[in-house]
Fold this protein.
Amino acid sequence: MISYNFNGIKKISLIMIFFFIPLYVINVQSKKNDYRLHPIDRKSLHSNGKNILYISRHGGTISNFCYIATNLGFNITVLEPIYNYQRKPNCYYTRNKCKSFVKSKCFEFDYIIISDIIPDSYIFLINKCDAKIILEITNRFDFGVPKFEKKYYYKMISKAKKRKNIIFIENNPFEIYYLCDKNIFIQNYYLIRPIGLSPISKINKKEIFHNKVAVINNWNQGKILGPILKKLNISFNILESKYGGPLTLTNYKAIIHIPYQVSVMKMMENFRYGIPMIIPTERLLREILDNNKNIINYRWINMALNIKNGIKNYIEFYNDEFKELFIYFDNFADLPNIIEITNFKDLSLKEKEFMKNYENKILKIWSEALDILPKKESLISDKKPLCNKISNND
């Protein structure tokens, strides 16, 4: 048994599950494994006696759900698969097809939640399972599925949606639309966004740049924004992708961001920690994409932009629910004045207050999905598919 430090969790045991693939196991309820990624009122904690197995490869989704589960009184165990995401566990390639493993886990746990890489649900969807299975889609649901296998995979998901013990959750509105684009109509589902906890937040107190803005160099944003900001005499720093999380960003007035993905967890993280975000308007975003095709390929942004009302409905940075929390600019020449006149402290406080209220909303929806609340008021039931590819209910 090997002990590791991992994102604030004091001890993690690395064990060999009997299908010969090692997975990290985190027992959040153990006194020795007191992760405390965010303050929780211990007096309010209670146990409802139910057990959740949470399967994910993404630290952000893990910290997010550990906080949710602990608040709602669940016992949670986290498995982080380390087999290649384009493959399956070794047991799948035997005659057993992981049947024994699935049977044991579905007996031990009341809920099996698969997040991040949804194909990790494969073995639970092809074998009998009496536990409730939740597919928490935080990325395209077919991410990592080899091209030759997609047809079979889509059929498997289509069959899974008909099972009463399987629940679909998207963490942004684009995911169910994308399923529709692949000819899969998910009629009933929940939209549950992350609460914005950052598992890697750290602050370098030696570097305070409150007179500067930051640019995070994801998908060549530094190449696009750097020369422009320099020409406009705007003080800025370009941060690499592993920049330390939102607490690092508190060193800056704000960040300037070009949306490169329909949804990123750092958006909700920045709201929670009060990081002002300056982003281009729809018109300017389209212009940036057109003028920089040689260095950027924002595939999902382009797809959403080509959908009617897609930017408002499927790109979170332009969603009506959040638009009051962003600073939009329609011309780069306007940036110096925007940075000069904006009261960033007030906007930061507004973001933090918004997230305090939003957390209650998220906890309520999870309470419905996990059967703590009997009424399913937050369940979305679409009468017809979101896209035009499907004419009926399959």
The two ends are 48 Å apart (CA to CA). Residues 1-40 have pLDDT under 50 and may be disordered. The CA atoms of residues 234 and 358 lie 33 Å apart.
